[in-house]
Here is the input.
Amino acid sequence: PVVEVTDLETGSKFVFGGDEVARTVTYGREDLCGAPANSAGWVEPGYQHSVEMRRTGAALRGSALVPGRRYAYRVGDFKRGMRGDEAMVFWAPVDPSALGGDDDDDKVYTILAFADMGEYPDDGFDDQGKEIETEPSVRVARMVAEEAEWAARDGQVLAVHNGDISYARGYGAIWHSFFAQIEPLASRVPYMTTIGNHERDWPNSGDRYGGQDSGGECGVPYMSRLAMPRQQGPDKPWYSFRWGPVHFVQLSTEHPFERGTEQHEWAMGALEAVNRTETPWLVAGFHRPMYIDSTYCDASNASDCKVADDLRFAFRYLFYQYRVDMTWVGHHHSYQRTCAVDLAKGCDDKSGLGLVNLVVGNAGAVLTANLEPEMPSWFQVAKLVHGYTKFEVTRKRISLKSIDVDGNVIDEWSKSSP
Here is the structure.
C-alpha cells in the first residue's frame, strides 16, 4: 500500500509506502473467539492497509511532510489502482516541541470527542436486529464530519472516539457499513480510538469482565481495522500521543488495569514522561467511566459503580499526582460532566488541580435511562440526549461545547492554564 500526497501550497507530489512504514493485515474465522463472529456473522474482512506518513526521512520520493501545511492525498496501489478525491485533504500535524511563541499561544486546535456511536445504513436495512438501536449515529456522524470540514479550513482538527466503535458485535458486515459512515470524518482528520466492551469482551479471552458483549470478536477486528500507535505485542491497546498543546494517554478499561498490572505500570511511565511545557493540557481517555451518574450499582464486576470504584482506586492518586486535567469516556449512553473533583471527591474548581470527568457516550447508541433520581454532588451536568462534544484548545485555554443532534448547545465549560 502507498499514500500519494500533493502539497497544496507548492503542487509537488511524493509517496509514502514500503516495508518500513506500511503494513497489511487481516484475520480469519479461526482468530475469532465465538459466535456469531465466527459463524452466522462472519464476512471476509479483506485486507487492512496502513501507511505511516512521517515528517522526516520516510518518503520514498521527494520531501517529507511539512508541519502545519495542507495536503491532498490518494491511497492504494499504483498497479491495482488509487482512490481519492479533492475532499481527502489533511493538515500535517505540528510537533508540540516547536510550539511556544506568542503566536502559538493563541493558535486554536479543534477536537471532536464522542463514544458509543455504532452505525445505521441509509437504506434502513436492519441486520437481524443489530442496527436498529443506533439510528441517531447517522445524524451525529454527519454533524461531526461537517464540523470538521469547516474547522479544518482554518486549522487543525482531531477526532477522538473512546470505545464502542461500530457495534458490530460479531456481524462483520456492520464494520464495513460503519467505516462507510465515518469516512467523511476519518478521511479528513486524525481519528483516534480506544477499545470498548463491544469490541473486546468475551469469556476466557483475557478481558477483565468475561461478558459476551463483543459477539465473539474478542478485539480481533478492532485491532486489525484501527491501527493506533499501540504497544508492541498482541492485545495491548493502550498508547499515548501528542496533538497540538494536548497530551493524550489512552487506556483500556476492558483489560486488567489494577495497580501492579502491565497496563497500570505502563500508564505510570507514560504520565511521568509528559512534558507539560510542550503540552500544557493532559487528558486520559478510556471507555468505562471513573465517575458516573448511574443506578447500575450491583456487586457484579461490570456494574457502572463497581468499575468506577475500581478505576478510582487504581488511578485517582496517579492522575492527581501528574495533574491530569480531564478524563474522556463513554459506555454510559449519556452526556455527563463533573466539577473539578479533588481527592476527597469534593469540588475544587478554583485551584486548577481537580479532575474534570466527561462522559460522551451519546453518539448514537440507545440512551441509558438509569440516571440517579438526584444527581450526585460532584456532577454538574447529566443529560440523556444524543450528540457530540467540541473542544477548542490553545496553550492557554481549553473550552468545550456539547451539542445535541438538533444543534442545541447543552453544556459549556472552560479552563485557563495556571
